[in-house]
Amino acid sequence: MCGIVGITSNKQVTSRIINSLKKLEYRGYDSAGIATLEEGIIKEVKCEGRVDILEKNISKININGEIGIGHVRWATHGKPSTLNAHPHSSEVVSVVHNGIIENSTILKKLLEKKGHQFKSQTDTEVIAHLVTDYLKKNNLKNTIVKVLKKLHGSFALGIIFKDQPDLIVGARRGSPLAVGYGPNENYLGSDSYALKSMTNKVSYLNDGEFCLIKKDNIDFFDTKGNKINKKILNLSKNDQSYDKGDYKHFMSKEIEEQPTTIKNCVNEYVDKVNQKINIYNFPWKINEIKSLVLVGCGTAYHSCMIAKYWFEKNSLLEVNVDIASEFRYRKLKFKKDCLYVFVSQSGETADTYAALDICKKNKMKICSIVNVVESSIARDSDFVLPIHCGPEIGVASTKAFLGQMLVLYMLCLKISFDQKIINKKVYVQKIKNLLLLSKLIKKTLLIDNKIQIISKTFANSRGSMFLGRGYSFPIALEGALKLKELAYMHAEGYPAGEMKHGPLALIEEGMPVVVIAPRDELYKKTVSNMQEVISRGAKVLLITNKSKDEIFSENIWETITVENVSNDLLPFLTTIPLQKLAYYSALEKGYDIDKPRNLAKSVTVE
Ligand code: M6R
């Protein structure tokens, strides 16, 4: 899950490669590197850490080629280090790679027997030596065809050659790759966003394809090396601001932006005049769909889990939810009357994409819910429902989670009405509730002082638990995930009713436990479970909503009360304290909130 970029030009490329790498850091940030070609010599600069460090290192060195490749890494084979940072070079080529070469160990042994010497612990270095080896007896194009055939696994590659002053080879299997067209120069990038400051004309490589990029021409080939034509697409010009503004972190900005992003998204789908939800050009008739499979990873998966409760309650559809990395290897019974929905903020998550691809190969109905509409998942779907929340930069997903829930909820309402499960009156009331949501989120956000104090206890504890029932169970999972990824703490999300079947043994004196118990139909049940953990010494933080009724439970450590809203919409509000809890716990510990250790914003390896 790395980012790659390449430029071939008649102007110097280093600073532009660095700028593009900064945009690709959402794919990995444990090391970075660049290689350029100058008068037949490949020059490399690499470092452990962020692109900022690479930039500083480069300022002390002359690296001024007019062709070059760059890389940001998220380590798979070999720890993050300068030595393992890309590009990896032999005496004749230099390679950047996103993905995993599954047969690298076997290939390495074969190449070592032939006298090739390796410097790093990476799978990528094998590619550099394999290309070098094939070039001895083959022309360049045949070399690429043969090398790609030898490699198992997934990859997006960028390769430059010592004796090719103007050529970058790009190749793709599994991992996405875009090609950009400029005046007297052309580009290669993991996504079009990395190229947007240089061009708005791009093409995308499909699986198995490769291309030869020169500054005034690009040729595309299929797996066998036959020339193919590519469509050139025009990207929208608006490059939304990636500025933190006055916020300390992107994450806090993104949390506070939620009233606006929710409002924007509601406005995109709700027709206020006719009081209905518009999903234009939905390609299927409502009676063609009998079931739903919702697929995602991490936070996106949690939004799918919540949607299951909504769809089951409000529609006739049978609903299944799956983690993409499991879905892709299961023996599935595909159904023609099933709609497969893939949820992904980035639209580039490798497992989610692979799951989609399986459905595509089986000719299923594919819908995606994404934030990045130019992404691979969006491009390969029959129908796309954008979440309209603008760029999300913080690795921890916040506003995208609310956006995903919102779009899933609106889809559910539309289906529910079209299936005549709810009548016009109920439908209109639910739409009215949606129109109020943004304001209620805004009010709920005003909890910083209290949550900041509470966070100190969490930050100083050994671990914590998050409990909920019904749609508060996925919210509990989401709260625990946020705390894990930001505060590096063990946090376990659990269905409240399941505690007595084992996890109750974990509860010890003073352990912080978050109980999400809004005043819905399961409130009393959850409160009983809360009492069980309190009796065993837990320090309970109760997340509930405002009510005239008293809370019939004693010895609650702290309570956070969110605004009142219809039961369906409670997950939008109960999420907010959990986002802030994770944020302030990480802040208390002094961790890197926007770029937590070991993670990346977009997970492009499986
Ligand atoms: O881009 P995606 O929505 O497909 O990403 C899926 C997960 O990798 C992502 O939600 C991850 O779990 C977040 N870092 C959680 O905050």
Just name the CATH architecture of the largest domain.
Answer: 4-Layer Sandwich
Mean of all residue-level pLDDT scores: 94
- CATH-defined fold name of the largest domain: Glutamine Phosphoribosylpyrophosphate, subunit 1, domain 1
Strand order of the largest sheet: 3-2-4-1-10-9-11-15
Number of helices: 17
Q: Per the principal axes of the C-alpha atoms, what is the gross shape?
A: globular
Cα-atom radius of gyration: 26 Å
Count of domain modules: 3
Please give a structural write-up.
With 606 residues, this protein is of the alpha/beta class. The protein folds into three domains: 3-234, Glutamine Phosphoribosylpyrophosphate, subunit 1, domain 1 (4-Layer Sandwich); 250-444, Glucose-6-phosphate isomerase like protein, domain 1 (Rossmann fold), CATH 3.40.50.10490; 448-589, 3-Layer(aba) Sandwich (Rossmann fold), CATH 3.40.50.10490. Helix 16 (523-535) links the parallel strand 25 (512-516) and strand 26. Helix 7 packs antiparallel against helix 13 and helix 8 runs parallel beside helix 12 (399-418). The protein is globular and about 80 Å long. The N and C termini lie close together (9 Å). The structure holds 5-amino-5-deoxy-1-O-phosphono-D-mannitol. The site of 5-amino-5-deoxy-1-O-phosphono-D-mannitol has 16 residues, from helix 8 and helix 15.
Defining traits:
alpha/beta; Glutamine Phosphoribosylpyrophosphate, subunit 1, domain 1; Rossmann fold; 8-stranded antiparallel sheet; 7-stranded antiparallel sheet; 17 helices
